[in-house]
Amino acid sequence: MGCAGILSVRFSAFSGGVFGEMGGDFYNPVMHTSPFDPSAFPTATEGGEHQSNLSDSPLLANLNVEQLAAVTLPAEHALVLAGAGSGKTRVLTTRIAWLLQTGQISSSGVLAVTFTNKAAREMVARLSAMLSLRVQGMWIGTFHGLCNRFLRAHHTLAHLPAGFQVLDVQDQLSAIKRLCKQFGVDTERYAPKVLQGFISANKEDGLRPEAVPAKDLDTRKKLEVYRLYEEQCQREGVVDFGELILRSYELLRDHASVREHYRRRFAHVLIDEFQDTNRLQYEWIKMLVGAPGGESSGGCILAVGDDDQSIYAFRGARVGNMFDFVREFGVQHHIKLEENYRSGSHILDCANALIGHNRERLGKNLRTSQGTGEMVRVFEATPNGQHSGDFIEAAWIVEEIRHLADGGWPLREIAVLYRSNAQSRVIESALVQVGISYRVYGGLRFFDRAEIKNALAYLRLIENPHDDTSFLRVVNFPPRGIGLRTLEQLQDVAQSRGCALSDAASALDGRPGRIVQTFVDSLHEMRSTVQGLRLGQVVERVLDRSGVLEHYRNDREGADRVANLEELVHAAEGFAAAEGLDPIVHTDLSSEEPSVLALFLTQAALEAGDNTAQSAQEGVQLMTVHSSKGLEFDAVFLTGLEEGLFPHDNALSDRAGLEEERRLMYVAITRARSRLVLSHAQTRMLHGQTRYNLRSRFLDELPEHAVRWITARKAASPSAPMASSRQPVAPTAQRPAQDEAGLRVGQKVFHNHFGEGEVLRLDPQAGHAQVSFTRHGVKWLALAIAKLTPVD
DNA sequence: AGCTTCAGACTGAAA
DNA sequence: GTCTGAAGCT
């Protein structure tokens, strides 16, 4: 599967980031030896207004005025508004390097937090390149990675076992399902997914069950599940993602000495992508630093973010944290990074004009000294007799890509972006048609694959026999004839005795009981046979003894899975060295030190791998706009710019939703270096039916001077006949009157192509009508395009 | 007990 | 149109 590269990079590049120097790194405020690299020592900065004064400092060379100001800020709280492509990461890393080199702090006095492992890795890599000191042991990582590290160090105070494990979303859901079954929760009324959302959302708001207002019966029921879930996790020694942060927060809150220690220690706290932080993450930061006026104020915060790129409100991100931060910390230093080093001014003009339609902004305008660059083009795909608009759109884009490729543009520098994953399919098949290779982002990640999760479940059971989630996952995998019946009995016994499933096995009798007992025995056997082996060997042996590997070998479609399992062995083999750990596994269940196996399993949960479906081959990159954030490409094709799709129907109910959609569009536009092509289709196959869509309102918000409206001039592919040569659409073409044609629900209508039908629903805001046609089924139509005649 | 079929969903997604 | 998850069949 070619995951070798991905894995080895992942496990080595972040070495020490999470686990390095565990223990010794904590209650040990003693500084590292001097971090100075004499050759890079800067001269006095004199307030640092002009870079010319600093030409002899390689670190600060080539920074623009704003970047320099941000890097050399005094040790006070500050907010940096960093526009897209403005050198944000460079500022963050140079700031850290500058603080270290000027001797203002030691490397143990810095805490830098990001959202993704990728961002953390990049920061570590850039710092290593700038500094001669060991970046490994520094507190640079994700919110969850750092909190994990923190809880490991203080696991006793946190009431957790040394080798506590981290539940990912899948594990969490199955834990909740199991709990529902056990306590007879009506899962028709309270879907496990909903309960999971409820629990996570509350944790991310920093709320334990007792703190959530039980306003109605429904909420009370959910709270009961929340409580039971917490008990279950505690009993099994596992934590979910939210718990990592919530418990770290509470630990700091409840233990003054620990709090004081870290507040004294971290003189500088740097936060990346601040607009994406949720309430709990912000509270954690505040607890770590101490709000002004509190009993002890700690270090200073440098928050870097861009309110215009806030696109994760749906998962709890609060742009409001930016405003709160300024208010609560009395932030005096506001720096805007507005110079963009990525795109020409036509592209930036589009971005600025578009985002100017948003009301709730801190305010910021991207500029460039690069010149205008290419015009931004807009393509409208018109359906023909054989193909719907999305097909024509895809074919046209692929043709354009082929031209680019012929012209020497590297394929990996070309991206096709879309609003929702469902759109990738048409584009993929168009690419396959002409034989252009591509990569799709958004598939399963390595550690989320079923075979890997099965293998990890065995390893977890070796580490912790009380992990019932893992027990249930593999008690009948590979199949050994244990059915639901048996498991229910087992769970009953475990519940009445208050013990783990694996300890309840002996109470069962009959054939099923013997099978379960054999399974439990084999786990014991594996646990003892594995002692003293290297981690890689441990994984290998468990894959063998558990029968997992054999099971996939016998599966005629299991070749990929076998390869992935081999990859897992390889990853385990390299893990210890990369983390600077002893590779020998000792799973002493009462140990105060987590075993290397426990750390490996945690790593797997906290860093599940790139979510790219294909291997890292050269190819056009396909992804959603969301996952394109932070990336850049020479050429960007942004597809499906249609009302209902982008902005998406589900986001249109309120102003905030629309503004987030617009920010999403802003993110997409600012990905392009030199070429940006926007496209929309008049008709699109969606959910197995044809939809008629108006072009996106966002297209009408772009400035005329920077945009060229085009239509197809030639056949997009041999099989696709001429797209009709319509006149370029005027950018200001009128939107349909809301009540056009006087339609109402239940109205009988006639359509030239589909014949007779009845209006099922109306969406006046979007100008859409859903019509059930007698002969062609249910379709959504855009009233401006479809000609509907009312019939009586 | 395990496989197959059928209904229903379906914006976005890090750790 | 395609994937997931639960009920039905062998």
Automatic annotation (TrEMBL):
It holds the Pfam family UvrD_C. The keyword Transferase does not apply. Its EC number is 5.6.2.4. Residues 345-630 form the UvrD-like helicase C-terminal domain. PROSITE patterns: UVRD_HELICASE_ATP_BIND, UVRD_HELICASE_CTER. Keywords: ATP-binding, DNA-binding, Helicase, Hydrolase, Isomerase, Nucleotide-binding. It comes from the Bacteria. One of its GO terms (molecular function) is ATP binding. GO terms for biological process: recombinational repair. ATP binds at residues 82-89. Residues 61-344 form the UvrD-like helicase ATP-binding domain. It catalyses: Couples ATP hydrolysis with the unwinding of duplex DNA by translocating in the 3'-5' direction; ATP + H2O = ADP + phosphate + H(+). GO terms for cellular component: cytosol; DNA helicase complex. Residues 717-738 are annotated as: Disordered. InterPro entries: DExx_box_DNA_helicase_dom_sf (IPR013986), DNA_helicase_UvrD-like_C (IPR014017), DNA_helicase_UvrD/REP (IPR000212), P-loop_NTPase (IPR027417), UvrD-like_ATP-bd (IPR014016). It is an enzyme of class 5 (isomerase). The keyword Hydrolase applies. Belongs to the helicase family. UvrD subfamily. This is DNA 3'-5' helicase. It comes from Candidatus Symbiobacter mobilis CR.
